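call fold(seq) -> tokens
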Amino acid sequence: MRSRVTLPGRIGAALIAACAILVAAATPAAAQPPETSNALRACTPGDYPPYSIRDAAGDHRGVDVDLARGFAALLGRPIEFVPVTWATLKTDFAERNCDIAVGGISDLPSRRAFADFSITYGTDGKAPITHRANGTAFSTIAEINRPGVRVIANRGGTNEEFARKNFPDAQLTLWPENLTIFGEVEQGRADVFVTDSVEGRYRVRQHPDLQVLHPEAPFDSFGKVLLVRKDDPVLAALLDAYLTTQLATGAVDRLFDQWIGPNAPVG
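ret:
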């Protein structure tokens, strides 16, 4: 699901004006030569396209990655992507000195205990992914939550939480990471994987034997945010101003179009 933001009348003008003030405050930093020690540390699991993916060469790509790079450029700082996992995000965020965290992060109250949140830059929701041979057999929670249905979920994130809550009667397998989990469904070792609909729409391009069911009407809806370190109101305000500008200019929608739009590349 993509972000569609309308900033009407004086409200929109006020937000854009606030962005201009905050961006101006950051501009002097851009004139300074960046130093590696001053890098913006962006922690990310790097396994959740189209938000963030780390490729075989170690490079990071994705919607959130581009947003993070743009934010670092605004601050006049180099960016360093720091690998973390969903299961250890809570401890890694502080221990690895993250300034921000990116990668398809959902707005969960439990995460506010260790980080502050940016404004919501988009919405998403959980949708089932299954083999095309299964047709619409796993379209509903009731159809999935049955003995003998093999549900798979990556460990430590909202997919595991959703599966445990909604599929107590199914056979649940927890997978250690999110990169190879689709192969388990494709090879018939699992029946269904419920994940963010945006990720599903991207992944089925790489796995043509799979289908994402009703991505336009997911099981739930939640905001997507970037995490920012606690007790740093200046960094948080600059991040919100930057994201507000990206939303107001349609830049966020264009990023999603590049990954999951009708003309998005398959590979």
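Confidence is low (pLDDT under 50) at residues 3-14, 25-35.
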